[in-house]
Design a protein that fits this description.
By secondary structure, this protein is an all-alpha fold. It has 15 helices and no strands.
Length: 348
């Protein structure tokens, strides 16, 4: 009997196993799950009431900005929950499962916002204006939105040029060196020489040598991206099982087909990991480059705001940077999941 159960369990998909686990939940577990889903809404209301009812420790101009921000966050979660509930009733439990998984994080976010507001605006434990409250930051971002948008566009353009050129060159170098031992013989010493040197170390040199600060920043970002993608691509292709190449040659595959039909597909997980690592190094390099030399961008804006002691503007730029890089990272993860969707199919 137990062997039959194990056989049935092996034949189930991941979704079927989740449905089986849901059916086996006790009434207390179901009640606890409802509490977890509702908790972000409760925490959001607590954050709103904390901002409205607790007395301020300092002057708070345009107080409704942060209040509207909190209300929009709570409303967004309520809409998300209603959509998940409707789809669950219709048989689609995917959205509800994502909501249930992220609900504790949303609760922690609202509590974090309430705690930060209490430590800054309400009590002054975190000294203002050096650590401004979120209402100050939101007002500063709105009042200086034109300059922030201009700097954001410049940063994205610089990131796009440097990252794209570095990834393209890294793919060419890494795939060539991973497949050809002759090319690896010449390129490997260069990689070993440049590898231990942080990308930021080259920034002061390039700011002096380059004809333009913008071109030097693009080169620095491309250099870091090139190194990460080259190493990942080269190692990924070099570690492909040789039996795949032999089987393909037996079937009459050409050298071009061996590269594009055998080597690259099997090395794709390593290549995409290198692209993600390249984005991380690019984000660090672009901020340092803009702070040290480039006369525009979010890094330059933060440095400029700090020189004028406008800490609310500096924090506003910091939050914009966090949002941008979070969106970029999520986009890369989405591309990675789409390209490697065959792995998820194999796991079921």
């Amino acid at each position: 009997m137990s062997k039959q159960v194990e056989t049935n369990m092996e034949g189930m998909t991941r979704q079927q196993l989740k449905e089986l686990e849901t059916k086996e939940m006790t009434p207390f577990q179901r009640f606890l799950e409802v509490i977890i889903v509702i908790l972000p809404f409760v925490c959001g209301i607590l954050a709103i009431q904390e901002y409205r009812l607790v007395p301020n420790n300092s002057t708070n101009r345009n107080p409704n900005t942060y209040l509207v921000f909190l209300i929009l966050l709570v409303a967004a979660y309520v809409i998300y929950g209603l959509v998940a509930a409707i789809k669950r009733v219709r048989g689609d439990k995917g959205v509800y499962e994502k909501l249930r998984f992220k609900a504790p994080l949303f609760s922690a976010l609202f509590l974090l916002l309430a705690g930060y507001d209490y430590l800054t605006l309400k009590t002054g434990i975190l000294t203002q204006p050096f650590v401004p409250c979120l209402n100050f930051v939101l007002n500063a971002a709105w009042n200086d939105r034109e300059m922030l948008i201009e700097c954001t566009i410049h940063t994205l353009w610089l990131l796009f040029l440097g990252y794209t050129s570095g990834v393209v060159l890294g793919l060419i170098t890494g795939i060539t060196c991973g497949y050809s031992k002759r090319c690896r013989y010449w390129v490997d010493p260069i990689i070993k020489f440049l590898g231990p040197i942080p990308t930021s170390t080259w920034i002061p040199i390039m700011m002096v040598v380059a004809k333009s600060l913008f071109g030097g920043a693009v080169f620095i970002i491309a250099l870091g991206s090139w190194f990460a993608v080259t190493v990942a691509s080269m190692n990924g292709i070099a570690n492909v099982d040789k039996d795949y190449f032999e089987a393909a040659r037996t079937l009459g595959a050409t050298e071009r087909q061996l590269v594009f039909r055998v080597a690259i597909p099997h090395a794709m997980p390593s290549i995409l990991s290198g692209c993600t690592q390249a984005m991380s190094s690019s984000c660090v390099a672009i901020m340092i480059a803009e702070m040290l030399g480039v006369k525009s961008g979010l890094g330059w804006y933060m440095n400029w705001a700090k020189s004028w002691a406008s800490y609310d503007k500096m924090f506003a730029a910091l939050f914009v940077i966090c949002i941008i890089f979070t969106v970029v990272t999520k986009s890369l993860d989405a591309v990675k999941r789409h390209v490697l969707r065959w792995q998820n199919g194999a796991e079921k």
